[in-house]
């Protein structure tokens, strides 16, 4: 009429006794001049204890083995495994009436294996083993993580105006690249005069010559001279590049 499971393991012999203790957490306090009062709190964790017979070598007719006979060591190994894993297991006690009708008050609860005691009594049980199992109700829990969100700073009109002014200043301070200019030589020109008129510095004639040396020397040779004598001979129509000021 009873079937006891821990996880999916059906124990072969249903225990003759099962103790379920629902622990209370109410607290009695004494008020000044008011006597005692009972402070009602949420119920505590439930204790479950039972004794289970584990046949060692004999397959009794009252024992149930859905997957074939398993000796006591199989169930003892399971108990040790569940305890060592430090994780909750599901305890079930299914009840059926003598006429085979399933009862509605089955026990189905998550527990932890707290303790188990192995008893061997050769006079009373022979090679069989009796195990006392103590279980405690498990309630799932978790710590909540508090995340503090930083408030976004509101953009004020004044700050945006300041940024606009800064960007305008930056734009103003940016140096524009000077575009190099060209100059076409006219009759009567010399490099010194060109430097004075175009660059406001007559001493830069040498820079003009260095920048345009190939052009100046090539034109001089076309006019029958071996060289321009370092820019002394220049001819109308020659296009010269002017260095940057």
Q: What would your notes on this structure say?
A:
- This protein is an alpha+beta fold and 245 residues long.
- It folds into two domains: 2-26 and 36-137, Elongation Factor Tu (Ef-tu), domain 3 (Beta Barrel), CATH 2.40.30; 182-241, no CATH class.
- It has helices at 72-85, 122-125, 157-173, 191-199, 205-211, 213-222; strands at 2-6, 9-10, 18-22, 27-31, 35-39, 46-54, 89-95, 107-119, 129-137, 182-184, 239-241.
- The protein is rod-shaped.
- The model has no long low-confidence stretch (mean pLDDT 84).
| CATH class category of the largest domain | Mainly Beta
Global structural class: alpha+beta
Spell out the helices and strands N to C: EEEEEEHEEHEHEHHHE
Mean pLDDT over the full residue set: 84
**Within the CATH hierarchy, at the fold level, what is the topology of the largest domain?**
Elongation Factor Tu (Ef-tu), domain 3
Strands of the widest sheet, in order across it, are 2-1-7-8-9-6-3
**Total discrete domains:** 2
Number of helices: 6
Poorly predicted runs of 5 or more residues: none
- Assigned CATH architecture of the largest domain: Beta Barrel
Beta strand % = 25-35%
Which percent bin holds the helix content?
A: 10-25%
Spatial shape: rod-shaped
Rg, please? 52 Å
How far is the N terminus from the C terminus? Answer: 110 Å
Number of strands: 11
- Largest sheet composition: 7 strands, antiparallel
Structure summary:
The chain has six helices and eleven strands.
Keywords:
245 residues; alpha+beta; Elongation Factor Tu (Ef-tu), domain 3; 7-stranded antiparallel sheet; two-stranded antiparallel sheet; 6 helices; 11 strands
């Amino acid at each position: 009429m009873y079937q006891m499971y821990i996880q999916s393991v059906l124990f072969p012999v249903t225990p003759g006794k099962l103790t379920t203790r629902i622990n209370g957490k109410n607290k009695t306090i004494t008020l000044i001049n008011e006597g005692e009062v009972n402070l009602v709190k949420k119920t505590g964790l439930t204790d479950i204890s039972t004794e289970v017979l584990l046949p060692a070598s004999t397959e009794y007719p009252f024992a149930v083995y859905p997957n074939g006979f398993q000796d006591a060591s199989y169930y003892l190994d399971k108990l040790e495994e569940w305890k060592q894993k430090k994780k909750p297991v599901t305890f079930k006690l299914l009840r059926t009436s003598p006429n085979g009708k399933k009862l509605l008050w089955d026990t189905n609860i998550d527990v932890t294996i707290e303790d188990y005691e192995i008893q061997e009594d050769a006079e009373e049980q022979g090679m069989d083993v009796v195990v006392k199992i103590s279980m405690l109700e498990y309630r799932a829990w978790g710590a909540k993580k508090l995340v503090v969100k930083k408030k976004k700073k509101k953009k004020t009109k004044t700050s945006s105006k300041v940024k606009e002014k800064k960007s305008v200043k930056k734009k103003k301070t940016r140096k524009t690249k000077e575009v190099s200019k060209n100059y076409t030589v006219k009759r009567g020109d010399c490099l010194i005069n060109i430097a004075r008129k175009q660059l406001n510095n007559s001493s830069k004639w040498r820079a003009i010559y260095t920048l345009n040396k190939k052009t100046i020397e090539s034109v001089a040779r076309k006019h029958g001279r071996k060289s321009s004598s370092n820019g002394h001979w220049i001819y109308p129509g020659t296009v010269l590049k002017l260095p940057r000021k």
